[in-house]
Amino acid sequence: MSKKYWDEKFETMPENQMKAFQVEKLKETLQWVYDRIPFYKRAFDERKLKPQDFQKLEDLAKFPFTVKTDLRDNYPFGLCAVPISEVVRIHASSGTTGKPITGPYTQDDLEQWTECMARGLWAQEVRPDSILQNAYGMGLFTGGLGFLQGAMRVGCAVVPSGAGMTERQIMLIQDFGTTALCCTPSYCLTIIEKAENMGVDLKASSLKTGHFGAEPWTVEMRDEIERRGGIHAYEHYGLTELMGPGVSFTCEHYNIHINEDHVYPEIIDPDTLEPVDLGQEGELVFTAVQRRAMPMIRYRTRDICTLRREKCACGRTLVTMDKILGRSDDMMIISGVNVFPSQIESVLMEFGELEPIYQIRLGKKGYIDSITVETEGKPALYASGKEKIAELAKQISAKIQAVIGIHVPVSILDQGAIERSIGKAKRVIDERPK
Ligand code: ADP
Ligand code: ZN
Prior knowledge:
Elements: H1 8-11, H2 15-36, H3 38-46, H4 68-73, E1 87-93, E2 101-106, H5 107-123, E3 131-134, H6 142-154, E4 157-159, H7 166-177, E5 180-183, H8 185-198, E6 209-213, H9 219-229, E7 232-239, E8 244-250, E9 256-258, E10 263-268, E11 281-288, E12 299-308, E13 320-321, E14 326-327, E15 332-334, E16 337-339, H10 341-348, E17 354-365, E18 368-377, H11 379-383, H12 386-404, E19 410-413, E20 428-430
Parallel strand pairs: 3-4, 3-5, 5-6, 6-7, 17-20, 18-19
Antiparallel strand pairs: 1-2, 7-8, 8-9, 9-13, 10-11, 11-12, 12-13, 12-14, 15-16, 17-18
Helix pairs in contact: 2-3, 5-6, 7-8, 8-9, 10-12
The structure holds adenosine-5'-diphosphate (ADP) and zinc ion (ZN).
Zinc ion (ZN) binds at residues 251, 253, 255, 257, 312, 314, 316.
């Protein structure tokens, strides 16, 4: 019988031992950045803080946050703590605007990242006899190579298919007997839809598991992927600033465990910046526990989430996080109500007549912000006639109003009108004049 955990020691470490481990490593990391990165030295000095002021985990709250603009201001290597001769890889995330965020790694950082990925994939049924098709974008984006490294560490056969060329993805699944598919959840839906159109039944294929991440997706979306793809849909979460994917992963009970021996999580109130308790929603903040090239201290992810420390039946003691509600940047304020795209997604997914594809269009009518949700029906819907379609759109709109409390018009567009995603889906199209 193969082992249950990839790294039993850390995955099942009692909480007090984990905390002691984190304290020891964080002491070293705070000293490391203070001695080597002028940005942190200045930030600590301004608050009259020395690395020695950190003696217990609660002390971390005294230390300053790091934000995305700090990375941009110090582009490309201003926050790198080691000389380039010790850097063996540099990734970058596109970000939305301006210069990218760089992610340099030492050999040891890469090793840590690979282990974090292997842990997740192992928890998700990937074994040496698996054939894993990696349809994340390969390149600067951390997803592609992160999954490649972790899967190779586990020892399975990796097919680095990359993102796109959807028909070929389906051919490879069939010809190679792919058992595990890695990509964004929205790209998996693109693959499923294309397979259905080609008359290929993925449910009857060799595919058993999906390893999805890099963008928010709801539980309802996950259910749809599992049903239509005939797979168990697992999740990974991460960001370039911390290591890429590998920050956390779901176990067989769908709990998202954080690799807290590598990334120390906090939740803060994004307005007051005060820490909030377990079980309360807020912004995820991470501190690198043992990275060396670019260890982030109290990095504000802008991802809205909740942390929990409840016993998981998988036996892992690693703290868990809820599914990400969304990025705070994606939060829309409509008629004074805060709305995340994921809340609209949850409602749309209740309607079996719809394809799980949508976009939210924001505009301006005079001085007033307007919002429209655009989606598409499944093929059968279009056969039912224009009136039925219009009636359904009204029902959806009413359901959205019942759930989030505001009126949002819904348009069901022609089949194929919304661009299919091959990577991170673009859910919000903001057409408001700047
Ligand atoms: P970019 O900012 O260009 O998207 P990254 O590729 O580093 O850069 O993306 C990291 C972000 O992707 C996270 O901060 C989060 O918003 C999102 N993300 C990654 N994994 C997940 C996930 N499983 N669920 C929700 N959001 C995710
Ligand atoms: Zn678990």
